[in-house]
């Protein structure tokens, strides 16, 4: 409880849900006031990895399933993910989504984030990129909005590592 003009309350939400703000006047006061409520970050974006909209903000990931991700902004929305791979590994990344809501595309980028190793831009549900890398390093997956409304997606990543000790003569 505070008194005076220009009151400010800052609070960080820890759990998704509905929240209420209550303003009240002190005893014997009768005055008008203005209440402004704002949301920081990206409005309406529930992607736990945001911000990851640029190469330098890439979220480190491993093989696995990452659900409830969002393409939050239709004007400038890229999601970057970084995955470290040994030489000879094959990476398969899938973005699973409904194209009826929005078209999402994806690319697999080299260790510098400058050359495309594979891309997928089908215009239908789901996209997939894959590549067998020749050098060990950190590679980048870019998932991005192409058209339509903001959309949610699931990112599935599979990594098939090379046999560490291939035996050319099994006998």
Can you describe this structure?
The protein is an all-beta fold. The protein contains no helices and 9 strands. It has strands at 59-60, 64-71, 78-85, 90-96, 102-109, 116-120, 127-132, 137-148, 151-160. A 5-stranded mixed sheet has the order 1-3-8-5-6, with no helix packed on it. It has a 4-stranded antiparallel sheet with strand order 2-9-4-7, with no helix packed on it. Strand 5 (102-109) and strand 6 (116-120) form a beta hairpin. The radius of gyration is 23 Å and the shape is elongated. The model has no long low-confidence stretch (mean pLDDT 83).
Largest sheet, spatial ordering of strands: 1-3-8-5-6
Structural class: mainly beta
Give the DSSP E fraction (strand runs of 2 or more residues): 35-45%
Number of strands: 9
**Which stretches of 5+ consecutive residues score pLDDT under 50?**
none
Mean pLDDT: 83
Can you give the helix content as a percent range? Answer: under 10%
User: What can be said about the biggest beta sheet?
Assistant: 5 strands, mixed
Number of helices, where a helix is a run of at least 4 consecutive DSSP H or I residues = 0
Question: Which secondary structure elements does this structure contain, and how are they paired or packed?
Answer:
Blueprint (H helix, E strand, L loop, with lengths): L58 E2 L3 E8 L6 E8 L4 E7 L5 E8 L6 E5 L6 E6 L4 E12 L2 E10 L11
Parallel strand pairs: 1-3
Antiparallel strand pairs: 2-9, 3-8, 4-7, 4-9, 5-6, 5-8
